[in-house]
Design goal:
The radius of gyration is 17 Å and the shape is globular. Helices cover 13% and strands 28% of the residues. It is built from 3 helices and 25 strands. The strands form 4 sheets. The protein has an 8-stranded mixed β-sheet, with helices on one face. The chain has a 6-stranded mixed β-sheet with strand order 3-4-2-1-5-6, with helices on both faces. Strands 8-11-14-17-20-23 form a 6-stranded parallel β-sheet, with no helix packed on it. With 222 residues, it is an alpha/beta fold. It has 2 domains: 9-99, Rossmann fold; 100-209, Hexapeptide repeat proteins (UDP N-Acetylglucosamine Acyltransferase, domain 1), CATH 2.160.10.10.
Length: 222
């Protein structure tokens, strides 16, 4: 495939989330996703949505010399965003520019701010005054209401909703369908389980589940 005049982009990760990211790039004509990096040896030499898989993450070190200018993460997260942070920082250290992707079916206020490398998928909404930092996933149909602050490397799961004035610190995960009530703060690397309703602040690295959300002390998977 070739998108004439578009940046030559590496997609890091060719699994399920990677396919959704590639689909969004193509729908938005944001770049030419000319290759995928994935550690799965079964994918090497094949293709995903017509995009070839050329190597694993180690290829980032020679990507610029091979003519690539941009990268975007196609790796998702369930329990931690640390790997996504490490891959993002590696891409930067290799001299590549992070690609910001907005699916054309996402709705963004002209009065919000979106950081480099963030991926905003179909049906997502980001409202006025919201500030989104680098390498954030705003997944399918997620809602970021007015005046929210979302730190780097955060994952807002499908149909999650953070209401007005919420602060989500870096590396946190808001699970699918979770709701965070107005003005609440979610600490660094905290996890909000799927379907939870968060009515009070969540400490860093805590995991909360349920309605209303409380700290998970039984080892439940988020």
């Amino acid at each position: 495939m070739s998108l004439a005049g578009m940046p030559a982009c590496l997609v890091v990760g060719g699994g399920g989330h990677g396919r959704v990211v590639i689909d969004a790039i193509l729908a938005a004509a944001a770049a030419d996703p000319v290759a995928i990096l994935d550690p799965d040896p079964d994918l090497l030499g094949g293709s995903v949505l017509g995009v070839r898989v050329i190597g694993d993450d180690a290829f980032l070190e020679k990507a610029k010399a091979e003519g690539f200018t941009h990268f975007v993460l196609g790796t998702g997260s369930v329990k931690t965003n640390r790997q996504r942070q490490e891959l993002f920082e590696k891409g930067l250290s290799c001299g590549l520019t992070p690609l910001t992707v907005q699916h054309p079916a996402a709705v963004l206020s002209s009065h919000c701010r979106i950081g480099a490398g963030t991926v905003i998928l179909a049906g997502a909404v980001v409202n006025a005054g919201a500030v989104i930092e680098q390498n954030v996933i705003i997944n399918t149909a997620a809602v970021v209401e007015h005046d929210c602050s979302v730190g780097s490397h955060v994952h807002l799961g499908p149909k999650s909703c953070i209401l007005g004035g919420v602060r989500v610190d870096s590396l946190a995960i808001i699970g699918a369908g979770a709701v965070v009530m107005p003005g609440v703060s979610i600490g660094k690397a905290a996890v909000v389980g799927a379907g939870a309703v968060v009515v009070g602040d969540v400490p860093p690295e805590a995991c909360v589940v349920g309605v209303p959300a409380s700290e998970d002390t039984k080892g439940k998977s988020p």
